[in-house]
Amino acid sequence: MIEDRRYGFRVALPGVVSARIDESDGKGPLAWRAYTSRSPGARRNAGFNAAVKVFETDSSDARALFDAGENDASQALAIPLIGRVDGTFGAAKLPSVTLSFQSGRDGAADMVRATVLLVVKGRRIYEVTFSVNGQDDRAAVGKALFASFALLP
Fold first, then answer.
1. Which of 42, 55, 88, 105 is 20 to 30 A from 30, comparing alpha carbons?
2. CB neighbours of 144 closer than 8 A, spacing ≥ 6?
3. Which ranges of the chain have pLDDT less than 50?
4. Do 103 and 80 meet the contact criterion of CB atoms below 8 Å apart?
5. Contact 138, 132 (CB under 8 A)
């Protein structure tokens, strides 16, 4: 379980969690931190990746933050966006968007599918990503990741 007090969240990243935490220097109008993990024993074209990124900005405009989060996810995944669903997150009913991405046809060995949850709280946007390569059914792993994600009071 990862608990980040500075950015106010906790999550249980599945698989092998990277020892490295990517982050900015925290100076200027944008600071960010990212935690990543991958499936154990992942082969080249099979397995999963998970990540949680938090961006702290100088804006509280939810629409602009969602656009920035979608842009970041699209660049990081480099596969086509196929769906977008607006929603709310948690007891506070924070604005959220769930993005779906897919490359390749269903069932193909080279298929890549990803789900990204974006949540805005004040001047922060939280980006939770789960992607699967290949034919392996990892839906339960992804569901557990998203269920474990919580914002701290």
1. 88
2. 12, 14
3. none
4. yes
5. yes
Task: Give the sign of the dihedral formed by CA 5, CA 115, CA 22, CA 126.
Answer: negative
* Residue labelled with tokens 């390569």: 133
In this structure, the strands spanning 16-17 and 9-11 are: unpaired
The pLDDT, as a whole number, for residue 104 is 84
Q: What is the pLDDT of residue 27?
A: 67
Put simply, whether the predicted model's pTM sits higher than 0.70 gets the answer yes
The CA-CA-CA angle for residues 136, 139, 143, to 5°, reads 150
Helix residue ranges, H only, the chain: 62-77, 139-148
Question: Three-class SS of residue 103?
Answer: strand
The pLDDT assigned to 137 comes to 74
What local confidence, expressed as pLDDT, does residue 44 receive? Answer: 58
